[in-house]
TrEMBL record:
Membrane in keyword set: no
Pfam families named among the record's database cross-references: MTS (PF05175)
Name used for this protein in its record: [LSU ribosomal protein L3P]-glutamine N5-methyltransferase
Species in which this protein is naturally found: Bradyrhizobium lablabi
GO cellular component assignments: cytosol; ribosome
Ranges where the Methyltransferase small domain occurs: 169-250
Coiled-coil segments on the chain, per record: none
CDD domains: AdoMet_MTases
One record GO biological process: methylation
Keywords: Methyltransferase, Ribonucleoprotein, Ribosomal protein, S-adenosyl-L-methionine, Transferase
GO MF annotation list: nucleic acid binding; protein-glutamine N-methyltransferase activity
Length: 334
């Protein structure tokens, strides 16, 4: 009898051990995560495949310059190897060194565990193919206005052109400039323009100053600290660009973890998301030349804005990845 009890106890201890091992399994898998055996992954393509698996497994959100795990993995792997993402295909099957492999695994692990946007981990983002320095003092650039500058401001021959001759644009204002990315893109589109760029955040302006210097545009772009138009007094512009904060209260409450690493000031547009946009619309006319116009991104607030400013003929523009999230209005209609 005692012998049987001992055997049962032994079996249940073994079962308990097995159950404990099963419970511990996910932790073991998680710790293995950072411990890919040397040589198990050898090419950039291997590391991209591995990163995609980890990113999908961790349910990451992709909204900061890339929109899917593959593009995010290519960006991080290339950046670690000092390659432009466009060079990935050329080197996909090349061998990486042990030191490079370690650096790539490290950045993949940091992306998963920190949930920070990839751009913050490597202090870089590409917009319209151009590199910009970024850190946590600025939102990661992803404005649709970058694409619209190319598609709607290229010259009079283009269908849907909003300004006849980009070379005749003399003064541009980038309101809420953040990293300065739109001001810098505008300097390429309007080669004869002087550009003012305003932000209320001194941290953001430090980042913008670094980008302006990287592009050697100190003589073209002037940075101003202040609340919207306040630092500009009565200056007028041929074009005002703005990607202001426009997230409503519900959107702020639902921000994914990745976005919570970005400055709240860059998102928060008040209860209905339109606090800043309303002010821009009300004040823009006094800062536009007679032929000028305002190009402004507002996210998903189109319906609310159309209702609030029903007297204004806002022209809603689409981009490759957005549908009516940016409007244009000429000075004469404001
Ligand atoms: C959505 S981010 C846009 C940044 C950049 N233009 C871009 O597209 O990446 C909005 C920016 O507006 C700035 N901002 C917020 N309130 C402002 C205000 N009242 N006046 C000027 N800038 C403001 C924030 O600091 C932030 O840099």
């Amino acid at each position: 009898m005692a012998k049987r009890a001992k055997a049962v106890n032994k079996r249940s201890r073994a079962a308990a051990k097995l159950a404990a091992a099963k419970v511990a399994a996910p932790r073991a898998a998680a710790s293995k995560f950072a411990n890919v055996a040397p040589g198990e992954l050898s090419t950039p393509l291997d590391f991209v495949r591995y990163a995609v698996s980890r990113f999908v497994e961790a349910k990451l959100v992709f909204a900061h310059g890339t929109t899917d795990p593959m593009a995010e993995a290519v960006f991080l792997v290339c950046e670690t190897l000092h390659l432009h993402p466009d060079q990935f295909e050329s080197f996909a099957t090349a061998r990486v060194t042990a030191q490079e492999a370690k650096a790539i695994l490290d950045v993949i692990a940091r992306r998963v565990t920190s949930r920070k946007p990839a751009a913050y981990l490597v202090n870089k983002i590409y917009m319209r193919g151009l590199p910009f320095y970024v850190d946590e003092r600025v939102i990661v650039p992803r404005s649709f206005i970058g694409e619209l500058l190319d598609s709607h401001f290229g010259g009079s021959d283009e269908e849907g052109a909003l300004i006849d001759d980009p070379a005749r644009v003399e003064n541009v204002l980038d309101l809420c400039t953040g990293s300065g990315c739109l001001a810098i893109l505008a300097s390429r589109r309007f080669p004869n323009a002087r550009i003012d760029a305003v932000d209320i955040s001194s941290g953001a302006l430090d980042v913008a100053a670094r980008n302006v210097a990287d592009y050697g545009l100190e003589d073209v772009i002037t940075l101003h600290r202040g609340d919207l138009f306040a630092p500009l007094r009565d200056r007028r512009y041929d074009l005002i660009l703005s990607n202001p904060p426009y997230v409503d209260a519900q959107g702020m409450a639902d921000l994914p973890r990745e976005c919570r690493a970005e400055p709240k000031l860059a998102f928060d547009g008040g209860a209905d998301g339109l606090d800043i946009v309303r002010r821009i619309l009300n004040e823009a006319r006094a800062h536009l030349t007679a032929e000028g116009g305002l190009l402004c991104e507002i996210g998903r607030g189109r319906q609310a804005l159309d209702a609030a400013f029903s007297q204004l003929p806002l022209l809603w523009l689409d981009s490759e990845d957005s549908d009516g999230e940016v409007f244009w209005i000429g000075a004469a209609d404001l």
